From TrEMBL:
InterPro entries: Spore_V_AE, SpoVA. This is Stage V sporulation AE, SpoVAE. The keyword GTP-binding does not apply. It comes from Clostridium acetobutylicum (strain ATCC 824 / DSM 792 / JCM 1419 / IAM 19013 / LMG 5710 / NBRC 13948 / NRRL B-527 / VKM B-1787 / 2291 / W). The chain crosses the membrane at residues 6-22, 29-49, 94-113. Keywords: Membrane, Transmembrane, Transmembrane helix. Pfam families: SpoVAC_SpoVAEB. The keyword Glycosyltransferase does not apply.
Length: 119
């Protein structure tokens, strides 16, 4: 199966599941954000999310659970290298590039486009 198709299927399945949860229950976007990142951390720490990453590639690493997965994996690696202090520095070091990119490109889009409030 093509990597593009696998990414689409895995990422799309995550989106469908979240959309169903939003439609059937009164879940706020903040609750979804926290739940998905936490789920990614838990599944990443238990090496279960590795299966999704192996087959789904970007479809598994780009959505919110992928961020949690990155936090878990980088923290575990840093704890193995530096001990307890790695629990505090691992997540930051592992996700710094993604966070920096999001802030930079968000700022760039704010400069390029004139945003308006909804009426």
């Amino acid at each position: 199966m093509s990597s593009y198709i696998a990414s689409f299927l895995v990422g799309g399945a995550m989106c469908v599941i979240v959309q169903i949860l939003m439609d059937k229950f009164s879940i706020t976007p903040a609750m979804i954000l926290v739940s998905l990142v936490t789920l990614g951390v838990i599944l990443g720490a238990l090496d279960i999310y590795d299966i999704l990453v192996k087959y789904g590639k970007a479809g598994a690493t780009v959505p919110l659970p992928g961020f949690g997965y990155s936090l878990a994996k980088s923290t575990i690696a840093e704890v193995d290298k530096k001990g307890l202090i790695g629990a505090f520095t691992g997540g930051i070091k592992g996700t710094a590039a993604g966070i920096t990119g999001a802030v930079f490109f968000g700022y760039l889009m704010a400069l390029l486009f004139n945003s308006k409030t909804k009426n």
